[in-house]
Amino acid sequence: MLALQASRHAQGLTKRPAANACIVLLTFSVTLLFGRCDADAATGASASEEAPHRRFEYKYSFKGPHLSQPDGSIPFWVHTGNAIPSADQVRITPSLRSQRGSVWTKNTVGFEHWEAEVTFRVSGRGRMGADGLAVWFTASQGLDGPVYGAADKWNGVGVFFDSFDNDGKKNNPAIIVVGNNGNLVYDHQNDGTTQALGTCLRDFRNKPYPVRAKITYYKKTLTVMINNGFTPDKDDYEFCTKVDNMIIPKEGFFGISAATGGLADDHDVLSFLLFRLTEPGQQPPPPEAEIPREEKDKYQEEFENFQQELDKKKEEFQKEHPDVQGEPIEDLFESVNDREIRQVFEGQNRIHLEIKQLHRQLAMILDEQRRYVSVITDEVAKKGTHAESGQVGHMTSPGSGYRVTSSQHQGSAVGMGTYETVQHFNDIKEHLHLVKRDVEHLVQRSNPAEKVMKCPELPPMPSCLSTVHFAVFVVVQSVLFFCYIMYKSQQEAAAKKFF
Ligand SMILES: [Ca+2]
Ligand SMILES: [Ca+2]
């Protein structure tokens, strides 16, 4: 507690020369009492006010899916030690022994109020892991050191996700907030408990979803909120700890570091998003105003150099390839997007052509079908007139008419535009020809004038078998059959007696 008091006091004196009444009180009062007095004032003030304006600051952030560049660097960030940036995350340390890694913003941040959202995973096979992950806001980049892979004696604040229980009090994994004015040496043996400004117990290892930490610095109050990674809900934050009257450097670097020891975890950071907070009623400064003049000139110069180089290269290329001089050079190359769009367009064009062709074929087949149908109906009509002149023809014509209609139905059912339909109609045509011939034949054979209602004559009965003969034969056969049945049943009855 003494160390904490000392640290606070030191911060207050170094960072705020015009110390306010509360800080003067600090030297005389107990830390707890002081904390309470200030906390009450802060909560009372913030409760009555509306939420601050929030603006995303891409120059101090990173996230997937294009987190790293092809050369392995992170735009606007530096990475050191064993950190491995990839497209969708930064592995601050792999799960190997004694690893240290960190990422830091390239430029300092000078926002009065801010909010940082860190999404990370700490995962390892063991029941315990080590050492942990730290989120920093410090006056200088702590590129390497013993405090979770970053430098000790930092000037600023560190939020530590301490996995390993060094003091054996069974109070890890835990989250602690430690402030430093640049003189304090971190108390690793006690898991920093002697220096903690705020702490909460949270198991952040091996969670189904990434763990999220929201660190807000607003009106000198540092709040840590945790999303424990049990749900995919991004806004499911729980309060962890709050430090009032937190004094941090006016300008500083944001950083994330991690380290492993004898035990090792993968420490993966999926995103770091920084937001600038502006008090309600105040206008946030325009983004352009934030770029320093010299930086702007530098970028402008760089751009001009690049443009000149490009022009030079263009000229060189045209000298080397005089045959393509007339064409614009840009058209010779095709970006991945252009190619994809072109391929999609070509594919659709092909499909369109195929459909068109199919449509044409279908129309042709339909035409053909229509022609066949008309031919058949003509035939039927013709045959009808033929049949009307004769009675036998009159009997057959409804049958053939039915056939035509049924075949029409079949034709449409089989499916339009198939070759089989055409074949089918050919068959029907042939068949109808046969029917027609039969009808004509019948018409020729019959004499329509005389045999109007007469039935065809029965063929004469054969003279060898008369009705009487047949009756006698049937009676004799029946008698013989009955005799046989009787004889058979008697024999079976006799056979049964032996058993
Ligand atoms: Ca520890
Ligand atoms: Ca501990």
UniProtKB/TrEMBL annotation:
Location of the region described as Disordered in the Swiss-Prot/TrEMBL record: 385-408
GO biological process: endoplasmic reticulum to Golgi vesicle-mediated transport
Keywords: Membrane, Signal, Transmembrane, Transmembrane helix
Residue ranges crossing the lipid bilayer per the database entry: 468-487
Compartments where located: Membrane
InterPro entries from the UniProt entry: ConA-like_dom_sf (IPR013320), Intracellular_Lectin-GPT (IPR051136), Lectin_leg (IPR005052)
Biased composition (Polar residues): 397-408
Presence of the UniProt keyword Transmembrane helix in the record: yes
Cellular component, GO annotation: COPII-coated ER to Golgi transport vesicle; endoplasmic reticulum membrane; endoplasmic reticulum-Golgi intermediate compartment membrane; Golgi membrane
Protein topology in the membrane: Single-pass type I membrane protein
Domain L-type lectin-like: 54-277
Main location: membrane
GO MF, any single term: D-mannose binding
PROSITE patterns with a match to the protein in the record: L_LECTIN_LIKE
Signal sequence annotation: 1-39
Protein name: Lectin, mannose-binding, 1
Encoding gene, per UniProt annotation: LMAN1
